[in-house]
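Figure-free illustration: sequence to structure, shown twice.
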Amino acid sequence: MKGTRRTTLTVLSALLLCLLSAGAAQANAIVYTGPVIAESAGGTRLPDWTLNYSQWLGSEFTINGPTTITGVQGFFDCSNAGKLLAVLHANVGMIPGDTLFSQEFSVKAGSGTVTSRNGYNYDWFGADGFAWDVGPGSYWLTFEAPDSSYYDGHMLGEAQNPLEKDAHYDWTAKTWIPGPDYEELRLGIRIEGESGTKPSAVPEPGTMMLLGSGFVALAGLGRSRFAVKN
């Protein structure tokens, strides 16, 4: 009888664990272009791409399945403080398409973790704590300053593993243009997210019904086995 009760409790515990962990999301770095260096090995200064209300910058990336993007970062000049918008766009080929999501964040002035040869200080800045639900496919992440009251600085152009395509928005032409003069931007970008289905903090009604049915069935099984032995 003790062995039967112990087995029943073991099965119930396993059932509960499986139900609560089903569909758990996996946090991961969707995109990381790697460390951004300030100078080439030979000492040549690398590009500092202007980023302000007159020119925005962005890159294309691809994800392979349903994903919730929860954080984005870029590698920015922090010589001057300011605000930026991180914007997720649909993909229309060589340039960003319609806006899907956006999130404002601040770039704080400071010493930074890396200093480029021309004296600009650089560090990672961005936003997190949001939930951008997207399906598999290609998207553009851009950093935008809507007007002159926003950020006025640079992004350093030497990520070790640059993204697939780059573009900049020219306010004079009022359009996105592939790269600066069709060159690679090589922007430093990080994108964090969760793949798969998010776990529920509270079991859904259907889950609770299934769990309750399991308890009832297993309890009945335990009583039946006890009756046979006695």
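We now fold a second protein in the same way, so the two outputs can be compared directly.
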Amino acid sequence: MFDPITAALIGSAPPLDGLDLENLPKVLTEAFADIVSARIRLRGNVGGQESPELSKTLHELRRLAATHEAYVALLPDRDNRTAAALVAALAHEACLLGRKWSEQDRSRVDGAMLSPEISAALLFLVAEAHADAAETAKRIRSDGEGSSAAERTLLTSIRFLAQGRIHTIGALEIPDLSDSGEDHADLALQALLLMLLNGVKRLALQLSRRDDVPIEAGGIETAAAIFLRVKALCAEPIHGVFPHGDPVFSLFPGPLHLANLLLSVESNLVETALTRIPTPGGIAEDGWWRIIRRMARQRPYLWRNHREAIGRGYLEQGVSSAISFPTGGGKSTLAELKIATALLRSEKVVFLAPTHSLVSQTTRSLKN
């Protein structure tokens, strides 16, 4: 199920007692297969029950997801954070496949928790698995009864972020706080969710820019600064409970955990933004910016293999390259970037394709 590079990344996750990292890619593959086959057997059997083996598999996957998600959220500076994020996201995704969905189900972030599909989409972003993040984001359902406008809009913004629709995030309106009467806790929760929404909108703005201008130089407050303020507001010490014991805190665990995950996303995602590609040699900055700004509306994130090629001078004049990625690995993105550099240098490009259908597809793509 996993290519050698992904398998190696999974195998570099944080070591845990009783967890065989060397065989973890195989374990995850078998878990996906078991869950899918079990769901096919139960399809249409309303009264069907999970087998003990499937229940055990889901239980172990939930433990795996929770543990590695904690590494990502609480220890953001770990060297193997990307691997931990990928393992947690894959375990969440497997559990979501094994979940029985109903029309009444909706995603939620409340004072105590957030739904696993939200965590999974954000963890895939941390792991730079952008295609998986976009696919998982389809499960984030922001509609349904019992949700506030703040929660619905925040979940919509997270779904758009995972799907790379960063320009759509900017068009989302910030809803007003809804008056909940005497329920001050609910009002505080809505205020925290609106702050997180502002942070996601600010992150989308950062991903649309060439660089970050410090506030003192007339720039904007970064998304990270907003998420850190949410963290500070979500935890308040309560004094005098245990005079000589451990401190006690009043918490909003749901927004706190979401802020931690978004901080991890922000630290990784800005580095992967297409808009942050340095201008290749021999090209005017304004011309390059016009090209990549237009491309970023459709594909705002660069994959790890893209950045490696660019880092090796792929976009520089006179550099020849042989690129070999699997289907869906992003060859077209790199080809279009290389073509853009040639056109901006007033050079000509010959594009050879082996089939008529591919000629038509490439023609449409390059015309856009």
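Summary for the second example: The first strand starts at residue 235 and ends at 238.
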